[in-house]
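Predict the structure of Gfo/Idh/MocA-like oxidoreductase N-terminal domain-containing protein.
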Amino acid sequence: QQPLCVMSGDGAWRVSATNTTDDKPAQIAMIGAAWWAQGWHLPQLHNNPNVVIAAIVQRSEQPTAAAYLHTELESKTQLQERYKGVPMFSSVDELLADKETLDKIDGVIICTGHSMHAEMGLQFIGQGKNIFMEKPMTVDVAEARELASVAASMKHKLCFMVNNSANYRDNCFEARELVEAGRLGEIHHVMCCMYSPLMGLFDDPANASWVKPTGTMVQSDGSGNGYGWGQLSHLLGWVLFVGGLGVEEVTAMTHRSEASGADLTDAALIRCSKGCSVSLSGSTCWPGNAHGDVPTGKQFDIKMFGSKGVLMYGGDDKNPGSGRLELRLHDGTSHVTEGFLMENLEQGGDGTESLQHFVAACRGKEYKNGADQEVGLQAVRVLDALYRSAASGKTEKAL
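Done. Here is the predicted structure for Gfo/Idh/MocA-like oxidoreductase N-terminal domain-containing protein.
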């Protein structure tokens, strides 16, 4: 049996500056240039005065987005025109062979299909590059363990971040600080829910990469991809980071789409170390469209029950005024911070909080890491066990 994965120690997510004199911009390479890269990462990097886009790797001439989005992406040729002077490559191997370009790179953003994350992450860690990886970190536990192990061995030299953007919001860091300081006491139970208006994405077989399992994702009943991998990794990343929980086993049930086969709803009881339980609920059946002309917000509700009280956070992620962070204690005291900030999907400006922290890391400046390799690994372990349990009808150990 694999040893339990234990979260990083108290305060390990705060990283001091190693460079206090040099103000050179970070040289960052974009690996994968499809929907998320074109809509968020590339324009934000381009707008950031502390960044130079060092390279773009895009395999196909014409990147594609999920059919549900009804979006035509720019071709590789158009990207070359938009980002003039940026070296363009068709593969990671091609970039690695260009020593002049490679030597300039401080960090890479890996924004490819999940199945390629581990291989590319290991390649660039081996080249001494900081890593900013889209979530989930991988969809294979063995790959996630190898990646986490290698990244951890380099943690005093390199930064490894998973882009759980909610984890880099101030409210998330504040929640983690409250837990670290012992304000909540020992955590006994967590209730966490996430509901997304994304039926058009997960109920349609045309959105293959979101609904069809591949490789080790495939379960005995043909299930293995859907709302869990696609959305619950956001919620789990937040809960696992804030609570610092070690996962042991999962008992789960899902409801699958008749059209696509993807899981549309997920329910799980997660047994954690030190006797803590997590009740997880998720569904893509919330009415509306998260990517419509007038986007509908995703709904969150998180409650952590500890020996001293309860920590609460929830709301509509399109409405910052819809919620707040509240610590309510048995001694009658409380701590409240107004505002609800979960995922950051803003497309303008010079980068989300997560990207800003990565840029700081690449420049040797002080930064915070809300989703390191351990958070990424823990989320993969939970989701892998969730899908196995839903297929087997039994409680499954987290590998």
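The chain has a mean pLDDT of 95.
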